Amino acid sequence: MTLVQLQTRSVSDRPVHSTVVDAMDAAGPQVWYDMTVEVALSVMAAARTEHLVVCDEDGLCVGLVTEARLTAVRDSSGYTDRIRLGDLTDGSGPFASPWATREEAEDTLPFGRIGPVPVVDEHGNALGVLALSR
Question: How far is CA 17 from CA 25, 103, 104, in A?
Fold first, then answer.
């Protein structure tokens, strides 16, 4: 019989706060900000996703749109086929830093904001998406 010695670890040995990188999902489809709402909804359906990361002409993340938001825009009385994703995202975020803790990322959100948030590096490149809830 072979004896195995078990070594116990205290709770304090485990990381208390994981970073956003530990909790984020892949960025998923990234689309250009000049895409129309109808085309974006088609891309979402084909990709079987509920959000798209929106990028500018340099490939930098300017925001994220959800299927729910695009559907609401399309069904609104002011909708025209000239509305582009860039009209719905202004580049001001919210964005999460990959080095922040999940708690820090949630604290930076406007009150009541839930749902996916793009995770971007210091250059504005989309690294992933963090699903947040409050």
Answer: 18, 8, 10
CA–CA dist 61, 59 (Å, integer): 7
- DSSP state, residue 100: S
Helix axis angle, 67-75 to 37-47, nearest 10°: 140
Note the pLDDT tens digit of each residue in 58-88.
Answer: 999 999 999 999 999 999 999 999 999 999 9
Q: DSSP alpha helices (H): ranges in the chain?
A: 20-23, 37-47, 67-75, 85-88, 102-107
Which homologous superfamily does the CATH classification assign to the domain defined by 18-132?
A: CBS-domain (3.10.580.10)
Domain spans of the chain, in order of start: 18-132
